[in-house]
Design goal:
21 helices, binds flavin-adenine dinucleotide, 5-stranded parallel beta sheet, globular, 6% strand, 470 residues, alpha/beta
Length: 470
């Protein structure tokens, strides 16, 4: 009998539910084909999210190879690829995979399940990417929560699943290596890898994920609650890209964090993991959220969508240093600090009155940790249209936020180097430089750095009226 393990956003050997079930079900004379489908429709060539994912895939393939297990890469149309697999291997009887919660992935999983089940192939699909599944935490009357706090109370009280080790290398005699099957895929992956703008060499892989988290727990977790809001202090775990590509299991993250000492940093960190589950639950029960405001009251907002403003925002050229530094961090690295995600999302929606969906899509292209549920949740929170969102009248002031969270302008200096020669106070608000000061510093607004594209005070006033008139 032939079993097939289909990897997707679960690029790890350890604690991989579907993979373990596939391995454990192998009997004498059975064989297992491990595969990944390269889907051209999902390529975003040139974007950090794309380069990151394929770097992670390459690393995962190497890890499997170390255990003498081949990962076959399929190309072309997915349905055709699976149909041809069935023809080539008439004894293909079982398919294993971990379910994808997002819209596209869910549809893809359903269509393949229907196809294979109609061919009498058993499909074994596992929901395993969150600590608690959407339906595990509901109100006492069975209705899903909309507010985080009561959800979190229940979440915190529930026991968490264990994680498992398995010596995968002992199964290598059962795993197939079929060079013909992966020939086109190998060529394609090589092409994708050689066209990367960034290689992410030290930022991928299961070992890297575990080392990073262990280091964070040993050195930073204790002060997480104190430093997590300051982009320059770099007090967060940077585990999100490993989680979104499945290079580490969420169960392992939980256990590593719980193994450390118990303190406020640990408590706040675990709460962030609960937000991840919460947004996944909301997305599960409101799958239209990516195109529709969660809050019905705000479904017909008349966004202004000025294309020049949108370009300035994307390119980090708004004239608001903290916003520009954040957007340039995203464009250069594919990651952005949480406080800054909140700020740039607020700025786009509240200062520029640009539809949150445009911002959400832009993040989806760039983020190496893109996760549909958390991203949509974060955007709808900032736009005040989401569940348990910030009220519309709470509008971040980029300059005072910058004073609060990047007092000396240290973070701004990294990503907006043209401002580095200004004294700290002026780094936050270069538009307040007088003509004489500009001449003295040999720094000219409009030439070396843009004038602010809007006046925050006026924009705020307009937005409040705009929301009230809806
Ligand atoms: P840490 O502070 O170390 O947190 C640990 C983990 O907790 C994170 O890796 C993440 O899995 C989870 N977490 C933390 N904060 C949140 C949160 N607010 N919501 C959900 N989970 C959270 N996170 C993503 O993983 N993918 C996204 O696409 C994404 N888009 C966002 C968009 C906006 C507008 C906002 C405001 C937030 C978004 N977040 C997203 C949440 C958060 O910004 C990132 O999870 C965090 O910055 C990742 O860095 P870290 O791993 O160092 O986080």
């Amino acid at each position: 009998i032939t079993h097939v393990m289909w990897f997707r956003k679960d690029l790890r050997l350890e604690d991989n539910t579907a993979f373990y079930h596939a391995l454990e079900s192998l009997q004498k004379n059975d064989r297992l084909i491990c595969l990944f489908h390269l889907d051209q429709k999902q390529y975003k060539i040139g974007e950090p999210s794309h380069d990151y994912f394929f770097s992670a895939l390459e690393e995962f393939r190497k890890e499997l190879a170390k255990n003498k297990i081949a990962l076959h890469l399929l190309t072309g149309d997915l349905v055709e690829a699976f149909s041809s697999l069935k023809t080539q291997f008439p004894v293909f009887k079982h398919l294993y995979f971990n379910l994808d919660n997002s819209g596209f992935g869910q549809k893809r999983d359903l269509s393949i399940t229907h196809l294979l089940e109609s061919e009498h192939i058993s499909v074994h699909a596992f929901e395993e990417s969150h600590l608690h599944k959407a339906k595990d935490i509901l109100k006492n009357d069975g209705i899903p929560y909309q507010k985080f706090t009561p959800y979190y109370k229940k979440w915190a009280a529930l026991p968490k699943p264990a994680y498992r080790y398995l010596d995968v290398s002992s199964f290598s005699p059962y795993t197939a290596h079929l060079p013909e099957l992966t020939k086109d895929g190998d060529r394609e992956l090589n092409y994708l890898l050689s066209n990367r703008k960034k290689e992410f060499s030290n930022e991928v892989g299961e070992i890297q994920a575990t080392d990073r988290l262990n280091d964070f727990v040993a050195n930073k977790l204790e002060s997480y609650h104190l430093k997590r809001d300051f982009p320059f202090k770099d007090g967060t775990s940077h585990i999100s890209s490993f989680l979104s590509t499945g290079q580490i299991s969420i169960r392992k993250v939980w256990h590593i964090v719980m193994d450390g000492e118990s303190h406020q940093g640990q408590e706040i960190y675990l709460k962030e993991l609960a937000w991840r589950d919460f947004y996944q639950m909301i997305y599960h029960y409101h799958p239209n959220q990516y195109k529709e405001e969660f809050n019905e009251k705000y479904r017909s907002l008349n966004w202004k969508n000025n294309p020049e403003f949108f370009d300035a925002w994307k390119n980090g050229q708004t004239g608001f240093p903290i916003i520009d530094a954040a957007m340039r961090q995203l464009n250069e690295t594919g990651w952005m600090h949480n406080r800054l995600r909140m700020l740039v999302a607020s700025f786009l929606t509240k200062d520029l009155l640009i539809d949150w969906r445009l911002g959400e899509r832009y993040f989806a292209e760039k983020l190496i940790d893109y996760d549909a549920a958390s991203n949509i949740g974060g955007w709808q929170w900032a736009a005040s249209t989401g569940t348990d969102a910030v009220p519309y009248f709470r509008i971040f002031n980029p300059t005072t936020q910058s004073l609060k969270f990047d007092k000396e302008g240290d973070f701004i200096k990294i990503y907006v180097p043209e401002l580095a020669k200004l004294p700290s106070k002026l780094i936050r608000e270069p538009h307040s430089l007088s003509k004489e000061q500009q001449a003295e510093l040999n720094f000219y607004l409009g030439q070396d750095y843009p004038f602010p594209i809007v006046n925050h005070t006026l924009a705020r006033k307009e937005t409040l009226e705009w929301f009230q008139s809806q």
